[in-house]
Design a protein that fits this description.
Its EC number is 3.4.24.-. The chain has helices spanning 15-32, 53-70, 95-105, 128-144, 174-183, 199-205, 210-215, and strands at 37-41, 44-49, 74-77, 80-84, 107-117, 120-125, 149-154, 159-167, 186-192, 231-237, 244-255, 259-268, 272-276, 281-292, 295-308, 313-320, 323-324, 337-341, 344-346, 349-351, 354-357, 363-365, 370-377, 383-390, 393-400, 402-403, 410-411, 416-419, 430-437, 440-442. The chain is of the alpha+beta class. A hairpin with a 2-residue loop joins β14 and β15. α2 packs across α3 (95-105) and α4 (128-144) packs across α5 (174-183). It is elongated, with a radius of gyration of 48 Å.
């Protein structure tokens, strides 16, 4: 078969049409062998490089950057591709620029030591020495935080150290690693609100601040309004590494004193005096105490020694009581019964009358003739009657269950005006009885039967 030559090329020298083709091929080969490439990482274009060796140099830059922190060479994981340079205006990268772009697009790892607790990698240290030192520091933390002579320290956890290549951000510094093993990572437990619960009470009971509790429960509509059945989330911190410390402890403990009461018939029953002051004793105990993560969980007393015996407190208390009875004198006893609280100073208060104990509903009589000037409810007095006897003298009758007179009514001495009760500020049925002269309280005892 014969090749047909284009009509325009007839009579031409063959070199005429071969030369352009050769020039094109030479240019193409030159461009392919020039050493210029586009480098990509995981499909992402990083920029232009003049030779493939720049990739290793950039990796070496990253190793130099992080060797001081992590103590080993950096492992750069990524799929790198070199593409022939086929376009103009490409940004050529130097070693520092290429290293920076690789750091952003590749995965950087370093050889580290995994701290494996109970089958789970919980943290990573930069090397074996650092990992072992951290474990010792955590153990020392728990030993030092409780007093006494060390007997034993051990961890119930299964601990293993394993070398692994891990991402740089997972490798922690010594201080951060120690705090992680001691404090753990926050966990949340659910608490169901019961009747009467308050946020403040829940926080106090679970040992967290109110601010932390509110922060952990943004779903609550109001910090002041809880309903039974509401769900509250409580943050808990559980150590990743546990230690049990056993120590021998010697300490002193107070011995409480006893109190005995002696009766004295010559003293009123509302009077008492201290005959002998009590004093606590003191003893020294030797114990073996078990702590878990710094919290005392058990104690065994090995022995004790009395340093000082306690002194018993002796109190003399009166037995003499004054019985209220109806007489024929100027003022009558309003009811019959024992005086349960006398007139005068009572603790930090001043009792302005006398209390006479009597069964609920017992009749209360007017101590003398007069006019009722008040009959009704009056705060702490409860149901209350005032009788004016003239001459500036008035008698008060308080805590009544029933009022049987009205204001302005004249009553005779001994007439029933009400019934014993426990209204107002009262802890049981009794009559509170007062005598006042020109508004000033007087001891009713000095007026009765006289």
């Amino acid at each position: 078969m014969r090749l047909r030559v284009p009509s325009g090329w007839k009579g031409k020298n063959p070199i005429f049409f071969i030369t352009p083709l050769v020039i094109f091929l030479l240019v193409a080969v030159a461009s392919l062998r020039s050493g210029a490439y586009i480098i990509t990482c995981n499909g992402q274009e990083l920029g232009g490089v003049k030779d493939k060796a720049m990739l290793e140099k950039a990796k070496q830059k990253l190793t130099e950057k992080y060797r001081g922190t992590y103590g080993s060479d950096i492992i750069v994981e990524g799929e790198f591709t070199f593409l022939p340079l086929r376009k103009e205006n490409v940004q050529f990268l130097n070693e520092e620029e290429l290293a920076s772009k690789i750091e952003k697009s590749a995965s950087l790892k370093a050889k580290a030591v995994a701290i494996n607790i109970n089958g789970k990698d919980v943290a990573f240290a930069k090397n074996q020495e650092a990992a072992r030192q951290i474990l010792e520091d955590v153990k020392k933390y728990y030993v030092d935080m409780v007093p006494g002579e060390l007997v034993k320290v051990e961890s119930p956890d299964a601990i293993k150290l394993e070398e692994k290549a891990v991402e740089l951000e997972k490798i922690l510094g010594d201080t951060e690693l120690k705090q992680l093993l001691i404090n753990g990572t926050p966990e949340f437990k659910e608490y169901k609100v019961a009747q009467g619960d308050t946020l403040w009470g829940i926080a106090k009971k679970n040992g967290v601040s109110l601010e932390k509790l509110v922060e952990a429960n943004p779903h609550l509509k109001s910090a002041d309004r809880l309903s039974p059945g509401d769900k509250i989330y409580l943050e808990e911190k559980k150590p990743l590494l546990n230690f049990t410390v056993v120590k021998k402890v010697t300490y002193q403990k107070a011995i409480p004193y006893n109190t005995v009461v002696e009766k004295d018939s010559s003293m009123w029953k509302w009077d008492q005096k201290v005959k002998t002051e009590g004093r606590e004793g003191l003893k020294e105990l030797a114990s073996q105490v078990i702590y878990k993560n710094g919290v005392k969980v058990d104690e065994q007393v090995l022995g004790e020694k009395i340093i000082r015996e306690p002194v018993t407190k002796v109190v003399v208390r009166g037995t003499k009581s004054e019985v209220a009875f109806r007489g024929s004198g100027r003022f009558l006893w309003p009811i019959t019964g024992n005086i349960t609280s006398p007139y005068g100073k009572r603790g930090r208060d001043y009792h302005e009358g006398i209390d006479i104990g009597a069964p609920y509903g017992s009749p209360v009589a007017a101590s003398n003739s007069g006019v009722v000037v008040f009959a009704g409810r009056n705060g702490a007095y409860g149901n209350f009657i005032i009788i004016d006897h003239g001459g500036g003298i008035q008698t008060y009758y308080a805590h009544l269950s029933k009022i049987m007179v009205s204001e302005g009514q004249r009553v005779e001495k001994g007439s029933v005006i009400g019934r014993v009760g426990s209204t107002g500020r009262s802890t049981g049925p009794h009559l509170h009885f007062e005598v006042r002269v020109n508004g000033a309280t007087k001891n009713p005892i000095t007026y009765l039967n006289k």
